[in-house]
Amino acid sequence: MISFKSLRIIFVLILSSIILSSCNGKFPGADARKNPSDPKLRVKKNLEEGRGFRLSESFSKSGSGVFEFASSNELWRASLDTIDFMPLASVNYSGGIIITDWYSTDENSNESIKISIRFLTNEIRSDALDIKVFNKKCLTPSNCVTSEKQGNINTELKTKILKTAALYEVEKKSKASKEYKTQQ
After folding, report:
1. Which residues share a beta bridge with 145?
2. How many other CB atoms are found less than 10 A from the CB of residue 97?
């Protein structure tokens, strides 16, 4: 008669073979061509990409936590830095939107613009932002026409924000890499 212990071993072997066969021998992220074979280089690469953690840091910190919020989001910082010359009407990080107030270059100008930036994702890519620019032309203070402005300004703003965000991301990765090197 088969014992309970041997039935359990057989069950575990059958279950593990089913699970492994469903993976087709491929584990996610296990492509040897993309990862260095040296463990120290793999650790360095993971930390540079922000995928690693250090136990020494988690035990050494005491007191309250670190709150980075928007300062850790490169797209958010780049957007605010790009439109920093304009007064802001509404800024909501959790809602993912920045709306400027009406802005004009001269005091006597009858034309002003307003920019709305909506964040669709936190990743730095071309479809991450929805930027709308509105134009207001006033003949008199009570007679104004507002319309959405189409053209180069939307693409120029998006390009500038994405380039700045990419620079911030590179800077963040190099800073994390330097911290890792100094701790070794």
Report:
1. 137
2. 14
Residues near 137 by beta carbon (within 8 Å), at least 6 away in sequence: 110, 111, 144, 145
66: pLDDT confidence band, cut at 50, 70 and 90?
very low
* Contact predicate 79/161, CB 8 Å: yes
Distance CA(135)–CA(133), nearest Å, equals: 7
Q: Which amino acid is at 170?
A: V
pLDDT band at 86 (very low <50, low <70, confident <90, very high): very high
Query: What pTM did the predictor assign?
Result: 0.59
Q: What is the 3-state secondary structure (H, E, C) of the chain?
A: CCCHHHHHHHHHHHHHHHHHHHCCCCCCCCCCCCCCCCHHHHHHHHHHCCCCCCHHHHHHCCCCCCCCHHHHCHHHHHHHHHCCCCCEEEEECCCCEEEECCECCCCCCCEEEEEEEEECCCCCCHHHEEEEEEEEEEEECCEEEEEEECCHHHHHHHHHHHHHHHHHHHHHHHHHHHHHHHHC
Amino acid making up residue 65: G
pLDDT, residue 105, reads 85
